[in-house]
Amino acid sequence: MSHRKIYRERQEIPGQELYEEKGSSTSRSLLSSITWNYICSLVSVLLTLAYTAFTGRTVDSGDYGSYAIALTATQFFSHVACAGLYSHLLRVECVTQQLLGAARRIALVSGIVCFLVTYAAAPLCAMLWKIPSVEPTLRLLALQFLFHPAATVTNATLRRIGQAKRAAGNELLGLAVGLSGGTLLILDGWNPWGLAAVPPITSAAMLIFGTTTLAHSRRRPPIGPHVRVLNLLRESGGLSVHNLVDFATSNSPLWCVARLLGPTAAGCYSRAWLFASIPRALLTQGINFTTTPAMADAQKMGCAPPVQVVHAILFGASAVAFVPFGAMAGMGPPLLELLLGPGWGSAVALVPVLAVGSALSLICSVGSSVDQVRRASRSMAVTKIAVIGGSSVAVAAAAATHSLTVFAAAAVTGPLLGHIAQLLSWRRDGVVHLRALLRAHMTHAAIGTALFVSARLVTVGHRPVESLLYGFTATVAITLGCYPLRRRLPLYAIVKRCGLLGDRTKSALSP
Questions:
Q1: What are the start-end ranges of the H helices in 374-500?
Q2: Distance set, CA 443 to CA 309, 452, 510 (Å)
Q3: What is the pLDDT of residues 367-384, one digit of tens each?
Q4: What is the pLDDT, as a whole number, of residue 233?
Q5: What's the CA gap between 45 and 49, in Å, rounded?
């Protein structure tokens, strides 16, 4: 059976028409939630950039490298502590009071266990990377496990019951409190320990804000049947393993840099990696945290996620990935140089490569979210194997050459091969019209490439402030040049088809 025939048959699934009758209202609701998430994400990025500029001038690269290694170790245990509960609560058909109570009990126990394990394992981690300062930093970071799992359960519940705006606001307020606390500690002489205090303070603030919001919300989880903790762990455990594989794959280059090249090189790599990955993580969360509940609602009605919704998600991810990160590849180096000040040239040089990797990682992550909702375990497994294989080859090559640039290339090869595996799987299962999606990728990638090339041409050889000014001017010129051609852009056609721009004329992207 050809993929076109499968694609048409998916549009004739019983119950699909009932869901798609609400396509316009659903799309408007999604757009509103995504817009609010991105507003909060933009503010979060600005706060993080300001904090980066501050720490870049107060914390040297060696201290920051040891902090980055300790942070990745706690992030690894964080996936264990959260036990995949966030992803599970977002995709479950209905969050009941019994389910919320079981999730909170798991979060409490797993958080305490991970705190004790991390505290005890801190000396071993310091010996593994041969960086003594990792031990006290890791023990301070471990405090976040007492708050973070419970905070994620609370915020996931808020998003699933239709309080996505409040959840995003709570996360932003928690980040602001954490960064403010870390800044005050560094100014008071706790340098670099103030860096490690930010995650625990942020997690505690998010838990307080989220619990208060949920307690006073008019929308409460309904009463449901009893939920066994072991059953919940069994259902969410697969998602936890999935998240752990993603985390280990994306952080393996940093671990190898610290082991082979030392804390100073790790500090440079982690600065550039965080500069590119923080916007990627926020953009990915803005899409996944909003669209996953919508697709789960379709599953609740007994039908596959509507083709219209899946198209809008994947085409939107394509635009959000290639266009902004194309601009970052061109304007990111002078911006990071301005933020960090002198002495971070190695980090600045890695930004273009890592920006490309962030774009591909965003698309691959959103695609994995779609596969999770449609319960395509085979597709997810093949994608993970492709990502691991591509990243492993690049890391092995970098270990042989001791090149930071080759290490950064691992952020590109892994998600690139993973997304190719996703495209082949979607073509086989008739999830999307493959040619239309590839056409969207090529169009958005061309725009991103134009933004990168124009910014690089006008920024080379200038001081950071001048480079940013010239790069911004070039970016605006490219954007204005695309405006008359907007009707030919794939994302514009999808948005118009969803009824967000007036008439719902049929898109040229329809097969």
A1: 377-401, 404-429, 434-459, 464-482, 490-497
A2: 20, 14, 16
A3: 988 888 777 888 888 998
A4: 73
A5: 6
Residue with tokens 């405090």: 143
Per-residue pLDDT, 502: 47
d(CA 511, CA 451) in angstroms, rounded, equals 30
Residue 452: count of CB within 10 angstroms of its CB: 24
| Of the candidates 455, 457, 453, 456, the residue with the CA atom closest to the CA atom of residue 445 | 453
**89: closest CA among 160, 185, 39, 40?**
160
Half-sphere exposure of 192 (CA within 13 A, CB side): 26
**Which of 279, 368, 369 has the alpha carbon at shortest distance from 323?**
279
Residues 447, 410: Cα–Cα separation, whole Å: 24
H/E/C letters for each residue in 270-320? HHHHHHHHHHHHHHHHHHHHHHHHHHHHHHHCCCCCCHHHHHHHHHHHHHH
Contacts (Cβ under 8 Å, ≥6 apart) of 32: none
pLDDT of residue 91: 77
307 φ/ψ angles, rounded to the nearest 5 degrees: -60, -40
pLDDT of residue 235: 67
The answer to whether 106 touches 232, Cβ cutoff 8 Å, is yes
Mapping DSSP to helix (H, G, I), strand (E, B) and coil, where does residue 163 land?
Answer: coil
The predicted structure's pLDDT at residue 178: 96
Question: For the segment 168-207, what is each residue's pLDDT rounded down to a tens digit?
Answer: 899 999 999 999 999 999 998 887 788 999 999 999 999 9
pLDDT averaged over every residue in the chain: 82
Alpha-carbon span 471 to 53, nearest angstrom: 20
Residues of the chain with pLDDT under 70: 1-34, 83, 235-239, 290, 292-308, 491, 493-511
Query: How many angstroms separate the CA atoms of 235 and 215, rounded?
Result: 27
Closest listed residue to residue 154, CA positions, set 203, 223, 222: 203
Q: How many helices (H) and strands (E) does the chain have?
A: 19, 0
Tokens 């082949």 label which residue? 424
What do you get for the CA distance between the two ends of the chain, in Å? 16
CA 501 to chain centre: 28
CA distance 465 to 331: 11
Buried b (16+ CB within 10 A) or exposed e, 314-323: bbbbbbbbbb
Supply the pLDDT for residue 294: 64
Residue 468 to residues 249, 329, 338, 435, Cα–Cα distance (Å): 33, 12, 9, 37
> Is the distance from CB of 506 to CB of 493 less than 8 angstroms?
no
CB 321 within 8 A of CB 306: no
Q: What is the pLDDT of residue 147?
A: 94
Q: What is the tens place of the pLDDT at every residue in 140-170?
A: 999 999 999 999 999 989 988 878 888 889 9
Q: Is-cis flag, bond preceding 192, omega within 30?
A: yes
* Alpha carbons 420 and 434: distance in angstroms, whole number: 11
